[in-house]
From TrEMBL:
<dbReference type="Pfam" id="PF14580">
    <property type="entry name" value="LRR_9"/>
</dbReference>
<dbReference type="InterPro" id="IPR042655">
    <property type="entry name" value="LRC72"/>
</dbReference>
<dbReference type="InterPro" id="IPR001611">
    <property type="entry name" value="Leu-rich_rpt"/>
</dbReference>
<protein>
    <submittedName>
        <fullName>LRRC72 isoform 1</fullName>
    </submittedName>
</protein>
<dbReference type="InterPro" id="IPR032675">
    <property type="entry name" value="LRR_dom_sf"/>
</dbReference>
Amino acid sequence: MSWDPNPVPRCWSLRRASETALQSSRRAVEDQLKICGHKRDADVFELFLSKKELTEVIDLSRFKKLKYLWLHHNKLHGITFLTRNYCLTELYLNNNAIFEIEGLHYLPSLHILLLHHNELTNIDATVKELKGMLNLKILSLYQNPLCQYNLYRLYIIYHLPGVELLDRNQVTEKERRSMITIFNHKKAHIVQSIAFRGKVDASWDPKSPFKQKPAQRIPSDFAFANNVDKTVFDDPEDAVFVRSMKRSVMTFSSMNWDTVPTREERYLEEEGTEPAQMLTVTLR
């Protein structure tokens, strides 16, 4: 084994590789600006940087009005270059080597996010990063290791209720109902209690029925309006849900005149004539 009198520290090698990657990224961005004829950063609404063999990307915060960004089919490992692109609505990061998405929570306007064919393994960290994206409607995560988790799809739907298209498949109402039953035991219990006219126990949890702390209650001498002894829910959404389910049900019925036979039909007594039907409308 030969001895190198001037060894290069490993940190220097990594730093040099990172600088080279950033230079390559900078050239790719400048080339795109020339192709599109943009002279001002404020005029840039989209950047097409796919299939550039990029391992890193320079900070893109200078493009304040950037809305569409294509970075698919590269060799990216992380996302640290989108800290102030608040107008970004479509982001294509599929077919990379991304193993974490820390930094995406800075994109509140994101509507489409493609992350399939990557190396994401931590489903909890991924969901945590995406929870704040209230406008996210289309999401793809298939062909990632995290997809191997049991009930992966329902878990994503539960934590990201605004998503309408997941992994190229529409989110169905059946999936949303199943999601509530599996992951939100308290809300499922509330529905069942109201359905069977039972008393709602906000503290019930099938996972730990004996260790759950009792529901907080306001002292009986504390009254507001005409209501006393109100159950306090830890989650405001549950309180709203219970209130909506307790509203009186109003039912309106009327004759469906389209099914009533005419005088001629009654006279001819046509065979197979169905009896008149009632229309019922239920409102809560």
